[in-house]
Amino acid sequence: MNKDQKFYNLGSGWLSANGFGLFGSKPQFSCADADFKYPDLEEYIAELPSRFGRFDVYTKIGFGAAVLALKDAGRLQREGKKNFGIVVGSSSGVYDNDLSYFKSTLDEKGAFTSPNLFSYTLPNVALGEIAVFFNFIGPTFCVGNDPENPGLEAMDAALSMLESKICDSILVGWVEVSQNIENSKNLPKGAAFALITSVKNGKAKAEYSFNQDFRFRQLFKD
What we know:
This protein is α/β, with parallel strands linked by helices. The chain has helices at 57-73, 95-104, 115-118, 124-134, 152-163; strands spanning 6-16, 19-22, 84-89, 140-143, 169-176, 190-197, 206-209. It has one domain: 3-Layer(aba) Sandwich (Peroxisomal Thiolase, Chain A, domain 1), CATH 3.40.47. The chain is built from 5 helices and 7 strands. Strands 1, 2, 3, 4, 5, 6 and 7 form a 7-stranded mixed sheet that branches. A hairpin with a 2-residue loop joins strand 1 (6-16) and strand 2. Helix 1 (57-73) runs parallel beside helix 4 (124-134). The two termini are 26 Å apart. The model has no long low-confidence stretch (mean pLDDT 86).
């Protein structure tokens, strides 16, 4: 990837236990265990996904932050297929779901194994819910995440795809929700997304270069 290549932020959104916001607000994340503060998504989209009531925490917070970013970018329209991709970074993924599902298999030789928990034992499921709802047809996948610099691994992958013209724009960010993984007390918890593109247009919030000094939080600054 060309480290000097410019890319453009069309809109961003974040969500945590401290609140939520769009581009121009300062994301506030905490490592403490706390309930997330969700926006009223029906203020932004006409209807919720049919499975929304069954979403696990990882999917619900990821979907909420994605809606905020797309709202900020003016890309909430669901009509027509869009060659947009999604890349998410996470240190813990859906570890809590995996643990809960495993526990549900232990009693009565698996007689009470939870099919609903099983549906969310892969982090890519959350991306699939976003892609299907908004008609995205670009690549969707998860990568690792450095808790010291959340989002950087996802940015590297996203910009490589933009440079190779695999998709027109990419929803890139990170999601962290685990309360049970060994180092969970050291992980900032919440979700943050930005819709980025390599094509400059008048609606971009800002432009950047992905150099050694870049930090994902820059995608939320004026």
